[in-house]
Hints:
Blueprint: H1 6-18, H2 21-28, H3 32-46, E1 51-53, E2 58-60, H4 62-84, E3 92-99, H5 106-117, E4 121-128, H6 130-138, E5 144-149, E6 157-168, E7 180-184, H7 190-201, E8 206-211, H8 215-223, E9 229-232, E10 241-242, E11 255-262, H9 269-277
Parallel strand pairs: 3-4, 3-5, 7-8
Antiparallel strand pairs: 1-2, 5-11, 6-9, 6-10, 6-11
Helix pairs in contact: 1-2, 1-3, 1-4, 2-3
Amino acid sequence: xxxxxxxxxxxxxxxxxxxxxxxxxxxxxxxxxxxxxxxxxxxxxxxxxxxxxxxxxxxxxxxxxxxxxxxxxxxxxxxxxxxxxxxxxxxxxxxxxxxxxxxxxxxxxxxxxxxxxxxxxxxxxxxxxxxxxxxxxxxxxxxxxxxxxxxxxxxxxxxxxxxxxxxxxxxxxxxxxxxxxxxxxxxxxxxxxxxxxxxxxxxxxxxxxxxxxxxxxxxxxxxxxxxxxxxxxxxxxxxxxxxxxxxxxxxxxxxxxxxxxxxxxxxxxxxxxxxxxxxxx
Length: 281
């Protein structure tokens, strides 16, 4: 599915809040026909009807009610990225690290927003496991990183939280007995640690059937049916889906948080200014 247009989502939420296209248009300072076009294009994108309309009432459908939460989450992320990468006079070089999990989904939008807001800054991009990014940040090899942490940890500025899910190839089924086959990153890996921990606490055995150091490697192994991957639910590698319960229901692995961190000491002047301008402290 294509990336949702924030303008269309804002029009959708205004209509849902006011239960009126004309009132939503006044709230947004747009023409009613423009708001109607935004909603129509959003309905076309999702392939579902989002509102039931007659001459007097506008009510969200079941799919429209579900879209409210998704729209708010998407706009929250969009606004958070914009706050972090707002216009500034920063120039020079920024050594930026990003978690493997973000490569296929969030990272292109983040880099695009950064380039629009900071056209004079040259990026040196490192994609790696969050634990490796933390080490490089501490060693002064990175100026800024976008990675993961467990809920309850305090390091970094929270950008968004996501639910973890065990994913696999379509039609993949677990054997009724025996350890759970696991496809995972090598240590140190936060999702690897969480997967092994929750499976052990739930009384499941775990057998690591494949280790890959990239998201594309994990995806290829899982699509080949080698096992299941623990991953952020809203950022799934293409082609993978939540494991069906079948005769064995895998345990709930909880949440994962995605955060921004900047170096606190011996930081480059430009990176320090960028952190100040984007709200990092």
